[in-house]
Amino acid sequence: MSTNHTTPDLTSSLSSLITAFHILHKHTLLDAYGHISLRDPTDPTRFFCSSLPANLISSPSDLDHWNVADGTAVRKPAAGTTSNTRPSQYSEHWIHACILDRYPEVNSVVHSHHPAMVAASLQKGDYRARAVWHMAGFIGSGCPVFDPANYYPSSGSSSTKRNLLISSKPLGSALAKSFCLNPQPFDRLPDEAVVLLRGHGFVTWGGCLEDAVYRAIYSVKNVEVQFQALQLQAGNKPSGLVHLGAEESEDCSSGFNEGRRRAWPSWRAEVMRSPMYVNELSGGGRVNGR
């Protein structure tokens, strides 16, 4: 059962979360898999997410309401959302719960299986994902690679499936810790903007929903540009790539908020004018063409 109590701010936030799922689907970061979460703006100890295919999410009932601290379902979910008291054994809501729990100033997390990022998770040297484009300066000198094989229990244990999924709290906590270069007990924000998951995909985050979407999209675009540049060297003596320097990455990142403010309205309009997507909290998912 869901409570009927809601507020305009929460309704608007849930509408934006549905839109974020649609935007990431349109940009091919989400398909039948992957997800984006949002910390509950009315209660920071809770968050919203969904395990449904992104293009099928259209209403609050398609969103699950979770507790941050222990990854359990909220028993009385807000605003018509769902209490998923029996999550699948493959559920990766632990990615979101553990990152949101460790970093109180993170309010949104994205997990994607995009093939370019899977490929990047397997590379070293020049092929290692680094910032090469001014739109993705936030990546910096390189994305760490999280390998769950380093955190599985002993081979005699059957409690954790070795399927590369982040489907338990211990794996989620280890992943969250990997976002900091020198983890401290009271980190408020991660050091790293993006962490690759070996053979699986990647995770990024934002202080708000729009930041997380922006980082996710341009992380993928940056890696695609990097791989294209490396392909241009095929058949020639490799000379290496010119990556962004430390100061360049920092200065490019300083324009991050402006980039997000310009991109979000455009991306939102694209999905709201598309017949593929429906958002019941935004007038049925349609806007006029003017």
Write a structural description.
The protein is of the alpha+beta class and 290 residues long. It is built from 7 helices and 7 strands. The chain has helices at 8-26, 93-102, 115-120, 169-177, 209-232, 246-254, 256-272, and strands spanning 35-39, 46-49, 64-67, 108-112, 145-146, 194-197, 201-206. Strands 3-2-1-4-7-6-5 form a 7-stranded mixed beta sheet, sandwiched between helices. Strand 1 and strand 2 (46-49) form a beta hairpin. Helix 1 (8-26) crosses helix 7. It starts with 7 loop residues before the first helix and ends in an 18-residue tail after the last helix. Residues 1-5 and 284-290 have low confidence and may be disordered.
N-to-C terminal Cα separation, in Å?
40 Å
Tally of extended strands? 7
Helical stretch tally: 7
State the share of residues found in helices, binned by percent.
25-40%
What's the main sheet like? 7 strands, mixed
Q: Please write the string of helix (H) and strand (E) elements.
A: HEEEHEHEHEEHHH
The SS-based structural class is alpha+beta
Mean pLDDT: 89
DSSP strand content: 5-15%
Shape: globular
Provide tags for this entry:
7 helices, 7-stranded mixed beta sheet, disordered N terminus, alpha+beta, about 290 residues
Helix and strand topology:
Elements: H1 8-26, E1 35-39, E2 46-49, E3 64-67, H2 93-102, E4 108-112, H3 115-120, E5 145-146, H4 169-177, E6 194-197, E7 201-206, H5 209-232, H6 246-254, H7 256-272
Parallel strand pairs: 5-6
Antiparallel strand pairs: 1-2, 1-4, 2-3, 4-7, 6-7
Helix pairs in contact: 1-5, 1-7, 2-4, 5-7
